[in-house]
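Q: Two folds, back to back.
A: First:
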Amino acid sequence: MHLRKDYLKVAKKLREILKLEERISKGEKLDPKQLEKIAAKGALLKEVTVLAVKLPGDTDIFSKNQDITDLLPPASQRDIEKKRKQEEEKKQRRNERQEEENNKPEFMCRHDRPILAVCVSSDGRHLFTCSKDKYAICWSLAKTLLKSVVTFAGHNGAVWAVDVCPPSPLVPAWLATGSADGKVMLWQGEPGRHGAGAIASPLHTLDHGGIVRVLKWCPFEDYQASSDGGRRLASASEKLGSTPAMIAVWHVSPKGVFTQIMQNKDIPTKANDLQWGNGAKQKLFTAHDNGFVGVWLAESPGSLLKTIKVHSAAISALCLTMGGTTLVTASKDSTSAAVDVSQPSTETLATYKWNRPLNAVAVSADFKAGAAGTIVVAGGKDARDVTRAKDMQEDEFESKVMEAASGEPLAAGKGHFGPVHALLSLPRLGSSGAFASVSEDGCLKVFGYDGLLLHSDTLQ
């Protein structure tokens, strides 16, 4: 600090001399004391040069006192500029190291942003979630308190989609994630292949484009009979920049190579969800903001086979019954519909009403529309409307379990304090099945159909 002060003191004296020299140039006569000051100019220049060389390279004193800097010898000016550039390079390297450290993935014990989707491993022992925090997490269901065992780090945007396929003789389970960064990433989806507390990196990446909102592995693959062990993955994305919304089907080889089977950008609105449909021709069911379900050929050219008007508002989610004959919807019009997709008429078999916009739906393994089993619906006011919604229900964020035959409520999954974004049926869990729920509150919970909390990522 004293160097800076000393430099500024000498600079002040030099400026006084420069003013005196200017007066002489105009023909003025100076008194002896003033002439003595001018005579000291050489010594002051030497002094200021010595001080300048000692000052740090990142100082702003030279740019703020350019008139004095210009008086320094050329060699000193070059040295100062060299030192400044070196200091800038050091600073840049420090910033890069700091940024690298800040962006370094960390093991996540739980999500710290809203959870957007959930899926289950083929053996039913692990759940996978994805979040706006840019991570996916694998959870062990071994204990009541869910334990995070693997963190999947690699996306640079909110991770909207997650799905895992069963392992095959040729390939282990692939975990697929889709993000707002326009990427689809493939990961080793068998937790046992990772060490405890592992931070996993993607094995393969597809530059999909758009905001990837939905991913679903085809559940009808015969991996044993497949010639190459490849699998099919359906995707749905939202418009981003010049990339339009689209649905697509990809063949994923055992080496993780993506080959597009079909793509359709001629869709009415973005697909909020999709499900695979079986039959004479495999197809995709998609949910749209205009209240329609689209039925598409799941192979090239991806033709639109049918549209089904089901709701008066956006359809948020779809699920299929165990046999794949009934498609069940959740809509912002506060209803859920069960549609018979085994017949060309696609008749609505039952409608279930609730008192809030619905984001998610799940059904029990024994569900039969209007006849047997249970249906679970959940949602709540949109996150941005919650603080000002005067008509918000006390149980706004509960998952309602209803009797499929009558639509009467049987129980509720309680504990979330934000809108529920997704539900997942877990038929092998508990005495008679269970369901998982994920929410805007960043929490994952698992309930029995009696409303009993079986697992949670937080202590209750």
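A: Second:
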Amino acid sequence: MTNQWNPPGVPPQGPPAGPPSGPPAQGPFGAGFGPNAGAPPQVPVGPPPKSRSKGKVVVGAVAAVAVLAAGGFAVTRIVGDGGTSEPAGQATPEELGEKMLVAFDDSDALAAAELLLPSERRVLTDPAFDLVDELERLEVLSDVDLEQVNGVDVELSDTDVIVEETNADDIRHVTITGTAEVTVSGDEIPTGPIIEDELDEAEVSTEDSTTTEPFELPLVGIEQDGEWFLSAGYTIAESIRQLDVDYDTGEIPDIPSVEEAIAPVGADSPDGAVEAMLDAVADKDVEAMIAQLDPGEFGALQRYAPMFIDDAQEGLDEEDFSLSITESDLRVEGDGDTREVFVEDIAIEIVENGDETYVQYSDGCVTVESGESTDEVCFTGDEVTAQLDDALDELENPEPAEDFIAAVQDAFSDFEVPGIVVTEVNGKWFVSPIGTFDGALLNVFEALDADELREIIETGKEFYSSMADDVDYGD
């Protein structure tokens, strides 16, 4: 166990701490380390709310979207086919923090992305590339600069890198601090015609704005093959671990060792990965579920799972229900090390407190049998349209809603329901939840074109306005 620092102004709880017997004490990770340990991390994102006009808030939001998109696109240039640079592991955690500060100071998304754990860069590669591509095609973004985040200039001063040990030799807390002067140039943000039209209509000012704020950003460095990388997954895991404090002793649990981690298992085929996950769910086997997850996405979860898995399994075992999959028909599409698995048909029997329920999905419809009742819900166009018509009958002025619904239905008439994404890692196939989400998101964008998006926006505004007009706010 490791001692946890108390936030400033909060007296220690429990008995006095004895002399340290391990690595240096750790602060509450999500709250930062060093001289400001315990204080919420301050990351400059714009002028203080009280001094911002409504227009600047909108411009700031647009800037944030553009920054995220540009950063994601930059990642793809590093690790995608034909990438321009290689992973930049560092010799020490201190060098890792210094490199990140340089990348921030230069507004260099490429350099920052190079510092990520290789497996995490792999997870971001294709989805980020495709997402920015789609946003440009839909005229939401335009001319995204790959070398520098457009419209955002950052100047850092009084910077420092604070590295703290943990009980694990391959994990370090790396906190970067300093003062950031951030200038947002509204005219240079890579917004496309659709966003620009909305800003013009709202008469939003795109004037430059500058703010200067101190910041303290806690990150986690991971050693892999003798080099140090930053990790988003381990940063999240460490933030959660710091919350698991024993308030009697002031200690937090140790990080499990590599040997204690749940080993990824996977399956021999793409559909086998989904079947193995379904079996694990049916068996209520938490460890088996975690072992079937893509280790590139959930390596941190697999490492930290021993901290909570016994409690999770015990809680699941105490639930009076059982689940069995009586029928399944899966279809695999794609090639290479990423495939999609589509559920054509699946039947599930659920027993809870002695009551039996049968659920079956087939041909776009879900049938539920419980006792003597049977219900069916279909996701086909005709069924959805009928349900919407019933809802519209309740509106005093249904025309704006009808126009909005028609615009959405027309735009997504060619929408393809995504499958479950699975990935091959070291010869085994794993379920990829993040890849599945990314695929679903991209399918939404790919179903649209710029004119359809404009029509959805315009009819959506009319619908919102009509609903607002119908609201009785009282006297």
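Q: And?
A: The chain has a mean pLDDT of 81.
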